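Recall from the previous lesson that a structure prediction takes nothing but the amino acid sequence as input. Here we apply that procedure to Protein FAR1-RELATED SEQUENCE from Corchorus olitorius. The sequence below is the only information supplied.
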Amino acid sequence: MTSVPSKNIWIRRQQCPCGDWKCYVTYEGDAEETSVASELVKTESVQSEAMVAPYVGMVFKTDEEAFEYYGNFARKNGFSIRKERSRLSPQLGVYKRDFVCYRSGFAPMRKKPTGEHHRDRKSVRCGCDAKMYLSKEVIDGVSQWFVVQFSNVHNHELLEDDQVRLLPAYRKIHEADQERILLLSKAGFPIHRIVKVLELEKGIQGGQLPFLERDVRNFVQNRKKVVQENDALLNEKRENDTMELLEACKTTKEADQDFVYDFTVDENDKVENIAWSCGDSVNSYAMFSDVIYFNTSYRSITYDMLFGAWIGIDNNGRPVFFGCVLLQDETPRSFAWALQTFIRFMKGRCPQTILTDLDPGLRDAIRSELPNTKHVTPIWHILPKVSSWFPLQLGSQYAEFKSEFDALYRLESTEDFELRWNQMVSIFGLGSDKHIALLYSLRTSWVLSYVRGFFLARMATTAYSKSVDAFLKGIFSAQTCLRRFFEQVGVAANTQNQPHQEMQYMHMKTCLPIEEHSRQILTPFAFNVLQHELIVSMQYAASEMANGSYLVRHFRKVDGESLVIWIPEDEQIHCSCKEFESSGILCRHALRVFIDKNYFQLPEKYFLSRWRRDSSLMFYDDHSIHDNDDEWFQEFQSLTETLFTESSLTKERSDYVRRELTKELTRLLNEVRDMPESDGAPMDFTLSPTG
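The prediction returns the following tokens.
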């Protein structure tokens, strides 16, 4: 009887060692499985020490223990056993067990069908009387099995060890061999070749496997039948659950007009791909659409669908959820539809930069649908693949290769990269390696010298990667159906996109006027980054050149020198490191020049709106945004922003506001709850960006 998994299991997509995109999961058995496997090995291994023959009066805790013991004895003595009869009683249940030699009794006469060819198989049964009979007794409430009859007299020849292992009772295909057989069969290997491969892998001579070629053939045929039955049940479950998901989207749309979704159907009118986003996410995108991350790390085993999530970063450095998609496959066509749909959800607004995994199909879709968007693959997507592709191939040279690869990634000049890349490929003999070819073909999306200067909003950092992983893991717990998964995504997205006002006290560390001024404008996240750059800038020296530009270098010359161009007429500053163009926060080199120029405040242009305190997700009334005459809301918003700005200037202020505001809000909430719940003019509060 076949069954369908009751839970929806999500796995991370990985790239197989062969280089093709597949989804596979490796696992280890639990303690119980490991114990069972160990016992099987013990049972089927030929032990050198002597084994006591069963005898009348011998005691076993269970009948299975007795069967295992008799089976081990039989194997050592050249025969196998089978279970014959058992007897039951209402009080004891099964209380009699008969175990006999595999050649006990005689084969029953079979009537041959007339008119049909029937293969006449000779039976091995010859009336052998070797046996062990058991009886169960309960003594002081404990069940025990006693041997009541035993005979080791056979009327046939007993087999040698190299023959007895081929008896059906001992021809077992262990789980590890089963997985290998299925993998080779799926790859198109014929049965005799599968057997040969297993013999070579185990380093044994032909015919020494613990099973025969026909056992492998029977196993493959039976497994294919089970898979076909399971596939039929799974397909029915997928269709039903996908329709439930679509119905959930329709219901959500009826209740919330800002909710958006779309789907495609195949030639059989079955749902193929489906994408959705909520109104809060669309509003968030309007504020933080400059950079997005399209994460495609997870795939559902049960539904065989790829999950893609569009995620950004808010002004406090937290991931913000924009929308998601379920795709039947990973072709450029499916990815193109997903990107088209997402941009339509977001009212035609394309991002400046999109971050993705190292997927050629996704790259092609981005080139087609987002031609003006820079495609970037963060280094934390590259390094795990390098670690899986090259160690086995390079062996002891891998450490040297990895060191050179890391250095190439950080080179500032594309010309230097091209030269040293070719040298590296030649030195390590990787000219024909397909992984090296793939990395090189995608170099403009991951090599630092090609990516530098494109806006990333600090999303290519390891810290951002970890925060996204934490968010997604909250979604991908085992779910019983797609509808439940849809609900979980909604809950997680709503929680992630909730407005957050940082009450973090921001300490002054340099006492520079620039630091004090920046603290009043930037969010704690952005301020901490700028503050770090300010502190480090103290270790740099700026040398003015004849043309008014500056060479800025570390006092120990750790990271070379940077060229800073200063245009005083427009108060413009440009650094060769291009950190401001990449993160939107000034670098240590530019700050060094501003300090030397005796600037007490940075020009306004260097405080990007996306990093300002007033560029936050706030509660607002949808109608009042469209009607600017709502003075109450304007006043409330202004007071709130001023309160948080003023309270963050000192720790004393911050602690006071935190303490008193909690009291006042609690008091107001209790009073409001005592008022009538409706006066005919309810207000609809939702989440959206302001400013």
